[in-house]
Design a protein that fits this description.
Layout: H1 11-28, H2 33-40, H3 48-62, H4 65-77, H5 88-93, H6 99-111, H7 126-138, H8 147-157, H9 162-171, H10 178-198
Length: 199
């Protein structure tokens, strides 16, 4: 029996991957009691990102799973459709299942990534893209990607639209618990964009 060891990556990259993964989880479905409790335990600092994390943690302490589910449904599901359509194709072309999704599927195949059998949404939804980026950085499915590969994936599939989506999420009519998630996403996307520009 062999023991698998996690790939060794820099602490900064591990923290980046963790934040991408957290955003992926919190956006993939309504948070249950355990995720709300974990979120309530987060601590931030005085930075813009840290302040948004502190706000989210405070909200998580007083949010019940039923309220979070109701908000999630209004934002992303709704009757017919939710307030927001969290897909790259929609943000970049105004339609679902367009060229950005086809390009993403090509790049996923090159990276050895594929949609889970239990997931039925198009792969270009924000939650999936956040999880993919986290996996690429951390090397969850193969060796951790170098900075160039990370930059390429971000520039092709996340950078052109995710900041706009997160701004819409923060300002959405039905956003309460998810408003600071939108703020976290905006600040993080801005930091990543600048880091890749300088890197």
């Amino acid at each position: 029996m062999t023991t698998a060891t996690a790939p060794s990556i820099a602490e900064e990259d591990r923290l980046r991957a963790d934040l991408y993964n957290f955003l992926g989880v919190i956006l993939s479905g309504p948070p249950d009691e355990m995720l709300l409790a974990q979120t309530a335990g987060l601590t931030g600092d005085d930075s813009a990102l840290g302040q948004a994390i502190t706000t989210l943690a405070k909200l998580a302490k007083v949010t019940k799973p039923q309220a979070a589910e109701s908000e999630y449904n209004k934002l992303f599901i709704g009757l017919g459709r939710g307030e927001l359509l969290p897909y790259a194709s929609y943000y970049l072309t105004g339609f679902l299942n367009e060229k950005p999704l086809a390009l993403l599927r090509q790049d996923m195949a090159k990276l050895g990534l594929e949609r889970a059998d239990t997931v039925f949404e198009p792969e270009d939804n924000i939650a999936s893209l956040m999880e993919m980026m986290g996996a690429i950085i951390a090397g969850r499915f193969r060796d951790p990607a170098d900075l160039g590969a990370q930059k390429d994936f971000f520039a092709r599939h996340i950078g052109p639209w995710a900041g706009h989506f997160f701004a819409d999420l923060e300002g959405a009519r039905n956003s309460v618990f998810y408003a600071p998630v939108g703020r976290i996403g905006q600040v993080f996307m801005s930091v990543e964009t600048e880091a890749f520009r300088l890197g």
